[in-house]
């Protein structure tokens, strides 16, 4: 389905053009201009330096295009969580339990490192090319995993699959912004979030079922033909014009910026994922990776602001008040949600539920995600505004974590259901409103790269959130366990085992178990109070966003 191109249209000055301005002649609603403020993108003049507009498709054609892309998004989300139930059998088959944590981390790190690059790369090479290559990497990664002969080959396969899966997820958002006017953008993003949420929710169940039926290898191999179908679908349905340039595509790619950004994120995430899991926090690996990550971040900022002609992420855009506020809101609230996803099940297991039953208790979070995504999109379509809606969403999100912070071992079953539901509504609503704030605050040509930046904030936020939650949980648990059990025989060994596994509670004398469960509850309350504080900070930061016009057409007129 070809879409009309509007590329290579010259922009000329006229007698009505401003002699001085911020580069595109636009000012903020309250009269501010420059990078530090927000531009009110009421028009979108095209030039060689601008991305051409696609022709706005009919609803039917749009549904065909987006469905073909969302199919890949669904598969990527499913693959991201499939490892939850496959880690143990995979590690056992390779006799390498010490590498178990890297099966998930390898995918996550590759995903996080490549997503921020996908915006600029697909601006240059085209969305279709990006989607096709993402499907190729995704299929190859799963094929490698299914045929792996060692744990290192398995981890390499997860890295390759993570690169492809990250591209599929990010590029689907770019295409939606290319084809859907801002006024309707939230609704379509809501549907995309549902596809991702359903895939993520089914991943663990699917993996467990395939493993029990045919073995863990088939869980990866069975995905390959469906990924091939996804690649074929997007090759026929996605055809969005790219910016004309006299330079070759390879010369336009900011390889130095891309390399430093990948290095920054990989070093940061390796350090955060290793600390407390693979090696102690005072291990030289942690100091080295985090220090080098900071150095490469400074180098990346210098390259993007001083050297790159088409930077991977234009640093100057982060000086835009709405852009920075939206990215930081993503950062803080993602910390909260990932902390809940990791420590919510522990709360249910402390109450006596099995891991499977604890996992089922997270379903309201997925239901809330679906409700929040679509309802937020519909409200923005009806009103054309997002600022007041964002405040309401932040209140719902904060209330969810305030409720979580009040939990005890005697909390009735309906309260966690409500808290999970509210968390899902608040988080998905935040993702939708901040996406619209981001892309409405910048010119059309920058919407993909700034969306990529939000993915970078999200991926680092998830890792930092889990790290903070783990530190709080383990510190409180250690202090309180020593206070309760320190004077008993074999305390050091018992406390060490309790800090590593919840199952150790069952091995304790009956008279100890109640006290230990209360200690676990105190540690969990510390985690939930911490996430409440982070959520409040995120909500306050979101107030810095400004209201921008959500136009009814792609030309933003």
Automatic annotation (TrEMBL):
Q: Where in the cell is it found?
A: Endomembrane system
The annotated topology with respect to the bilayer is: Multi-pass membrane protein
Q: Which UniProt keywords apply?
A: Membrane, Transmembrane, Transmembrane helix, Transport
The organism's place on the tree of life at top rank: Eukaryota
Could you give a GO molecular-function term held by this entry?
basic amino acid transmembrane transporter activity
Instruction: List the Pfam families.
Output: MFS_1
Q: Which GO terms describe its cellular component?
A: endomembrane system; fungal-type vacuole membrane
Against InterPro entries, the record matches this protein to: MFS, MFS_dom, MFS_trans_sf
According to UniProt, the name of this protein is Major facilitator superfamily (MFS) profile domain-containing protein
Source organism (scientific name): Letharia columbiana
């Amino acid at each position: 389905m070809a879409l009309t191109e509007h590329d290579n249209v010259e922009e000329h000055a006229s007698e009505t053009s401003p002699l001085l301005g911020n580069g595109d002649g636009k000012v903020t609603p309250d009269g501010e201009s420059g990078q530090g403020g927000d531009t009110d993108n009421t028009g979108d003049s095209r030039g060689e330096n601008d991305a051409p507009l696609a022709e706005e498709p009919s609803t039917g054609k749009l549904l065909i295009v987006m469905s073909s892309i969302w199919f890949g998004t669904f598969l990527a989300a499913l693959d991201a969580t499939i490892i939850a139930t496959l880690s143990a059998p995979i590690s056992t088959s390779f006799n390498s339990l010490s590498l178990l944590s890297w099966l998930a981390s390898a995918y996550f790190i590759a995903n996080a490192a490549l997503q921020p690059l996908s915006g600029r790369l697909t601006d240059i090479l085209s969305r279709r090319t990006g989607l096709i290559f993402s499907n190729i990497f995704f299929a190859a990664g799963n094929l490698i995993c299914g045929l792996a002969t060692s744990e290192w080959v398995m981890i390499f396969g997860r890295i390759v699959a993570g690169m492809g899966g990250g591209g599929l997820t990010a590029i689907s958002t770019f295409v939606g912004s290319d084809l859907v006017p801002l006024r309707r953008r939230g609704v379509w993003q809501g549907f995309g979030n549902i596809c991702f949420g359903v895939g993520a929710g089914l991943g663990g169940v699917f993996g467990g079922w395939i493993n029990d039926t045919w073995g863990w290898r088939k869980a990866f191999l069975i995905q390959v033909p469906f990924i091939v179908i996804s690649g074929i679908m997007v090759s026929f349905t996605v055809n969005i014009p790219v910016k004309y340039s006299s330079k070759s595509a390879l010369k336009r790619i900011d390889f130095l910026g891309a390399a430093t950004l990948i290095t920054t994120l990989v070093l940061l995430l390796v350090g955060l994922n290793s600390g407390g899991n693979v090696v102690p926090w005072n291990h030289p690996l942690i100091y080295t990776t985090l220090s080098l990550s900071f150095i490469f971040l400074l180098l990346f900022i210098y390259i993007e602001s001083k050297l790159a002609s088409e930077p991977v992420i234009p640093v100057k855009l982060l000086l835009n008040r709405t852009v920075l506020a939206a990215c930081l809101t993503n950062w803080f609230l993602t910390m909260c949600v990932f902390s809940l996803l990791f420590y919510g099940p522990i709360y249910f297991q402390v109450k006596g539920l099995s891991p499977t039953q604890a996992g089922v208790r997270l379903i309201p979070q997925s239901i809330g995600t679906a409700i929040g995504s679509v309802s937020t999109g519909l409200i923005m379509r009806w009103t054309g505004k997002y600022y007041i809606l964002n405040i309401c969403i932040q209140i719902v999100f904060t209330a969810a974590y305030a409720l979580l912070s009040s939990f005890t071992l005697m909390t009735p079953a309906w309260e966690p259901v409500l808290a999970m539901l509210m968390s899902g509504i608040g988080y998905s609503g935040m993702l939708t409103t901040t996406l619209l704030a981001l892309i409405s605050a910048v010119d059309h040509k920058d919407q993909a790269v700034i969306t990529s930046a939000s993915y970078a904030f999200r991926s680092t936020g998830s890792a930092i959130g889990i790290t903070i939650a783990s530190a709080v949980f383990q510190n409180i648990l250690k202090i309180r366990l020593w206070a309760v059990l320190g004077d008993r025989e074999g305390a050091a060994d018992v406390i060490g085992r309790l800090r590593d596994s919840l199952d150790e509670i069952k091995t304790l004398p009956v008279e100890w178990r109640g006290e230990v469960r209360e200690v676990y509850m105190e540690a969990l309350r510390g985690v939930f109070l911490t996430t409440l504080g982070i959520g409040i900070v995120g909500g306050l930061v979101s107030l810095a966003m400004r209201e921008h016009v959500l136009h009814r057409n792609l030309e933003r007129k």
